[in-house]
Amino acid sequence: MAEIEPLLQSTGAGEVQPAEHEEQxxxxxxxxSKAARLASLDVFRxxxxxxxxxxxxxxxxxxxIAHVPWNGVHxxxxxxxxxxxxxxxxxxxxxxxxxxxxxxxxxxxxxxxELFLLGVFLQGGYFHGINSLxxxxxxxxxxxxxxxxxxxxxxxxxxxxxxxLPCQRWRHDGLxxxxxxxxxxxxxxxxxxxxxxxxxxxxxxQFRVVQSPSSLVTANNSHVYTVKxxxxxxxxxxCNSAGMIDRYVLGIDHLYAKPVYRNxxxxxxxxxxxxxxxxxxxCHAPFDPEGILSSLTAAASCIIGLQYGHILVQLxxxxxxxxxxxxxxxxxxxLGLFLAFMGIPLNKxxxxxxxxxxxxxxxxxxxxxxxxxD
Length: 374
Fold this sequence. Notes:
Elements: H1 19-35, H2 39-58, H3 79-94, H4 101-123, H5 147-164, H6 180-199, E1 201-202, E2 205-210, E3 222-227, E4 231-232, H7 241-249, H8 292-314, H9 318-341, H10 353-361, H11 364-373
Helix pairs in contact: 2-3, 2-11, 3-5, 3-8, 4-5, 5-8, 6-8, 8-10, 9-10, 9-11
Protein name: Heparan-alpha-glucosaminide N-acetyltransferase catalytic domain-containing protein
Transmembrane segments: 43-66, 78-96, 108-127, 147-167, 179-201, 292-313, 325-344, 350-373
Region (Disordered): 1-31
């Protein structure tokens, strides 16, 4: 929960209040503390949930709002960046005053761990659908990463930056000093991401697909596919290094079994969601859009959201907020479009840097909403 601590006025030293008045004052203070919330952030969080439900249920009817199969952005592709933006702004509010860094770290780790485990429970394969007669989960095929896990990773990275890395105060003239240590972390994460994405060699790889729901895998109910790669720096769905890292570290059986790139024309997926045997081999392969490598840039986006939160917390004048927010947003938009023009595609599944910058610049609508409400 993103809460703003109210400025409490203390009574004079040595002044004694009656017991009843003191009890009423304590109740009033407690009520104000619980009620003092950032309304616009709560509204935007609710809009994100509504948007998520809208694209999930209406995306099959209106494909223009569903996730893009690979490169590009649709309405659904803005949901994850918006949630990470909310998480980053919340971190700036919650940890704006930290008296005990160790205690704050333990609380942040516990909160992130709870969110991560909740994500494993909700997206790991425990729920088999309303019409399914099966129950339970296959530990050997449980999905380890997902949406809530990604938010948990971004949250803990941003929280540790806010708790432990030195932060500089804002000047009185409204011009902010740069949080150099935080931006160094963002730059480091993006550098590691680019190095692994373009530098790792992806060899040919194989995987097995079980054709029947039986737990006993035999030669009759499974098929082995081979994907020919032997490339470096490929950003396609078949031979990117992000998928290779997940296959080596997590295991291919623990990845998302129905990746969105199956909607590409090459896969020729049926109306029932079945991929024909004549489709390319990689169309049958699992792929996790919330994988390990793309979590680096997702965490970087959460730290960027933290900087938006710094502006909100430290600056009280709306014009100053708008001025600084507009600098961030238009700079991100311009840089993101430039990177896309230079060959780094807007890709949600890989969470490319161009995608990070362009989608985060769209949080400008929320900036205007903050000014209107708070």
